[in-house]
Design brief:
Layout (H helix, E strand, L loop, with lengths): L6 E6 L4 H12 L4 E6 L5 H8 L3 E5 L3 H14 L5 E5 L4 H9 L4 E4 L3 H41 L5 E4 L2 E5 L1 H7 L18 H15 L11 E3 L5 E3 L1
Parallel strand pairs: 1-2, 1-3, 3-4, 4-5
Antiparallel strand pairs: 6-7, 8-9
Helix pairs in contact: 2-3
Amino acid sequence: MSDTTAVPVLVQSVSRDPVEMLNSLLRNAGLAVHCTWIPAVQDVPDALEQLNPELLVTFAPSARELIEIASVRDQFAATVPLIVVREQFDEAMVGEDMARGARDTVAVAHSEHVQAVIRRELRAFRMERTLTNTLRSAQDYRHQLETVLRRSNDAIAQVQEGIVVQVNTSWLELFGIAEAASLVGQPAMDLFDADTQTPLKGALAACLQGRWSDHVLKARALLADGSAVPL
């Protein structure tokens, strides 16, 4: 895999040697990464904005430096996991690092643990990103639907699992109903004459299968006054 498709990783370290070590360690483990060296903490904000990394690693930071890095990460790329690498550590130190904003702490000497932790954090980052994008898309589609419902002169009802969840003004006018609340939550089929419900269901099923032309839609809508009109 080329560097253009490799996972972007920021590595904050005073010297370049740890960067080369981490890059080699991860690539040997089958992780296609591209490690960018950030020598100074004050350079982290620009790197986060310009490189859009999936992981931020810092080598042996002081308590003050870790707090500063975590604060910058939270401001510019809050979802990017932050991993601390130390020569050695104990459980108390791990807890302190996590309290200051790190996701975990690893030791250089334990390569398998380093690889496992980074794999886990990259996977978690991608899953969260996918979920965020999915929710954003759903919100966009919802906004588009609401715009269509609001602006369209056609009578439109949104139905989920056979239940009316939303109708527009034109639909209310067609059925002679004053408020949408009286329709929302009701079975959609109850809006149609009983004799035409079966062919309507067949036509809708064909539509979902891309076979709309196979059925001629004949249905009678039940209006608020109890009368039925053909659609």
